[in-house]
Amino acid sequence: MAKKSLIQREKKRKKLEQKYHLIRRSSKKEISKVQSLSDKWEIHGRLQSLPRNSAPTRLHRRCFSTGRPRANFRDFGLSGHILREMVQACLLPGATRSSW
Predict the structure, then answer these.
(1) What is the mean pLDDT of the chain?
(2) Contact between 93 and 75 (Cβ < 8 Å)
(3) pLDDT number for residue 33
(4) Residue 76 shares a structural domain with residue 51
(5) Global pTM value
(6) Same domain assignment for residues 82 and 95
């Protein structure tokens, strides 16, 4: 189980990313449309003035049940070992164990 503080920090980052998403997207579109370099620098400065934790690259996908930050499957939102346990217990519909 991940520390509660790390999970809360990740939730805070997610909320900040959603708050500044439109501002960030419009600024990036504006940069691509502007021709002069000085205007691009000005818009880039506005982008840099946004909080660092509002950048989408700072978000980290975590396991839904344990909060584990590594080995996550996007389709299920679970880490590898939890996914394996749930498949073996037949708790995930449509997921089967591989055999060859």
Answers:
(1) 90
(2) no
(3) 93
(4) no
(5) 0.71
(6) yes
CA–CA separation, 78 and 85 (whole Å): 11
Give residue 44's pLDDT: 94
Please give the structure tokens belonging to residue 67.
Answer: 């909060």
CA dihedral 67, 71, 73, 77 (to 10 degrees): 0
pLDDT digits (tens, 9 = 90+) for 38-58: 999 999 999 999 999 999 998
Q: Which residue has the tokens 């164990």?
A: 97
> Mind giving me the DSSP string for 2-62?
--HHHHHHHHHHHHHHHHHHHHHHHHHHHHHH---HHHHHHHHHHHHHS-GGGSGGG----
Q: What is each CA distance from 42 to 29, 34, 39, 48, 53, in whole angstroms?
A: 14, 11, 5, 10, 21
Same domain, 48 and 1: yes
Contact predicate 51/20, CB 8 Å: yes
DSSP 99: -
Domains held by the chain: number: 2
Same domain, yes or no, for 90 and 69? yes
